């Protein structure tokens, strides 16, 4: 399908977990409230400037900003707003953009969750106890993107979210047809599975 809009997908900046190299998943009770480090703020500022330069070349602007309601993504959105000089009222928060719910693996080692999701048998319907499968995330981000595509046309859309939702959104917008395409893109990591502060442009 031909997209009605142009999309900028931005992962939030660095938190203390990435700065200190902690190989731990965010705890359920504090994950949504983790803030950016100073380095993380600078990462987002640089990506925001990159977006602004792209828009300036075409004499355009960001029309809509959609953001996960977690603190680290909210802070990232505020930095982008400052770079562009637009009012924070332009920022829309959507629960469908939140990070993956790892359920029983929240607060545990990343290796444990990797073994579960990326073990010998990788399927999108692997769902941990009290958590989400990749299919669950894909369903909610599809709902969000379909709604945006139906509602707007010819707009520049900025979405600020987290690694797994962005990976799945990028694949959906690129019309991936099967799980293997998503997994290959995830393993490649170049332009589908973002590091902190990384921008992915889809048009």
Attribute tags:
single chain, 203 residues, alpha/beta, Rossmann fold, 5-stranded mixed sheet, 7 helices, 42% helix
Q: What is the mean predicted local confidence, pLDDT? A: 94
Please report the number of helical segments: 7
| CATH-derived topology | Rossmann fold
Helix residue percentage: 40-55%
CATH architecture, by name, is: 3-Layer(aba) Sandwich
Strand order of the largest sheet: 3-2-4-1-5
What's the CATH H-level superfamily name?
Phosphoglycerate mutase-like
Helix and strand sequence: EHHEHEHHEHHE
Protein name: Phosphoglycerate mutase
Organism: Candidatus Staskawiczbacteria bacterium RIFOXYD1_FULL_32_13
Would you give an account of this structure?
- It comes from Candidatus Staskawiczbacteria bacterium RIFOXYD1_FULL_32_13.
- Substrate binds at residue 72.
- This is Phosphoglycerate mutase.
- It holds the Pfam family His_Phos_1.
- The chain is α/β, with parallel strands linked by helices and 203 residues long.
- The protein has one domain: Phosphoglycerate mutase-like (Rossmann fold, 3-Layer(aba) Sandwich).
- It is 42% helix and 11% strand.
- A five-stranded mixed β-sheet has the order 3-2-4-1-5, with helices on both faces.
- Helix 3 (71-84) links the parallel strand 2 (64-67) and strand 3 (91-93).
- Helix 2 (38-57) packs across helix 3 (71-84) and helix 5 (134-151) packs across helix 6.
- The longest helix has 20 residues, at 38-57.
- The termini are close together.
